[in-house]
TrEMBL record:
The chain crosses the membrane at residues 6-23, 35-54, 86-111, 117-135, 155-175, 207-230, 236-254, 261-279, 285-305. Keywords: Cell membrane, Membrane, Transmembrane, Transmembrane helix. This is ABC transporter permease. It is found in: Cell membrane. InterPro entries: ABC_transp_permease (IPR001851). It is a multi-pass membrane protein. CDD domains: TM_PBP1_transp_AraH_like. Pfam families: BPD_transp_2. Its main location: membrane.
Length: 315
């Protein structure tokens, strides 16, 4: 691990220690559990977006995909709108829908040559439209005991959602570390031309990365539905920017080729600790969005300035 990779974990420890000194309530076990539980959905979404960022692309589809997946699962499990009760199959269907939206983003990128941020922004709008149609003006409230237990039941002090997020982080790290998909995502972000000249067909891997990310967004929509007890079009509102913030703060470059799932997981904890700590010491929640914006700009600047100096690039 290089010195720059150690920066985010050190910052996490320092910020946690600072808030622990300023607020006795912040350092309580209950509050630590709340931080971990509240970070669960963001951690899952960030896992997905990390693979896209490693390629040097941008994904803004999380909000729309999560909204569509949230409405899908809420209408397929036991609910107040219909007689469906598909249980776990409903969760699988919501995740698969996320894969479909991710595939659309990837195909728009590699076939239509649409820049990733525009392609994913369009897919997000499609997802929100689909979610609005399924919502149909009546909120579907879930009554499925299994899905409700994700946010209510606890194991070793943490909610099931937190353990699901931990499993997703582990899965993401294993794929990043031991599969071609993870290694090629790194290589595409670092030097796509070299990878292409070596005989690797890059386009299928780009699409696969977006499909993989879409699966995480779909699961994130299911997790939000478990928390709210209902399917909402706005289930993913704000998660796209928060996930990018967490990934960048953790050390995943927007230009690709550096970072990873574990880096982003540290970034998620950094963002959640900062958000929780500001509330604990009495800072208005209305400042939190501004603080996130300052953090992401500072993190990007800290990562890019050394590169500009090394390469003597001036733009």
């Amino acid at each position: 691990m290089s010195f720059r990779d150690a920066g985010p974990p050190v910052a996490l420890i320092v910020i946690f220690g600072l808030f622990a000194v300023l607020s006795p309530q912040f350092r309580s076990l209950t509050n630590v559990q709340n931080i971990v539980d509240s970070a669960a959905v963001l951690a899952v979404v960030t896992c997905g977006i990390t693979f896209v960022l490693m390629m040097g692309s941008i994904d803004l589809s999380a909000a729309g995909v999560m909204g569509a997946s949230a409405l899908t699962v809420s209408l397929l499990v036991a609910n107040n709108r219909n007689d469906n009760d598909f249980g776990f199959l409903a969760i699988v269907a919501a995740v698969l829908l996320g894969c479909v939206f991710g595939g659309l983003s990837g195909l728009a990128l590699v076939l239509l040559k649409v820049p990733s941020f525009m392609a994913t922004l369009g897919v997000s709008a499609v997802g929100l439209g689909v979610a609005t149609l399924m919502f149909a003006g009546v909120q579907p409230n879930i009554s499925d005991t299994m899905l409700e237990s994700w946010a209510v039941e606890r194991f070793l002090g943490f909610s099931y959602l937190a353990w699901i997020a931990a499993a997703c982080i582990l899965l993401g790290w294993l794929i990043q570390r031991y599969t071609r998909l993870g290694r090629y995502a790194y290589a595409i972000g670092g030097a796509e031309e070299v990878l292409t000249l070596s005989g690797v067909k890059v386009k299928p891997y780009k699409v696969a990365v977006f499909v993989f990310a879409g699966a995480f967004y779909g699961l994130g929509g299911v997790m939000v539905t478990s928390q709210l007890g209902a399917g909402l079009v706005q289930a993913g509102n704000g998660y796209d920017f928060s996930a990018i913030t967490a990934a960048v703060v953790g050390g995943t470059l927007l230009t690709g080729g550096r970072g990873g799932v574990l880096h982003s997981a540290v970034g998620v904890l950094l963002v959640m600790v900062l958000t929780n700590g500001l509330v604990q010491i009495g800072v208005s929640p209305y400042w939190q969005g501004g603080v996130e914006g300052v953090i992401v700009v500072a993190a990007v600047a800290a990562a890019v300035i050394p590169q500009r100096r090394r390469n003597q690039v001036v733009k």
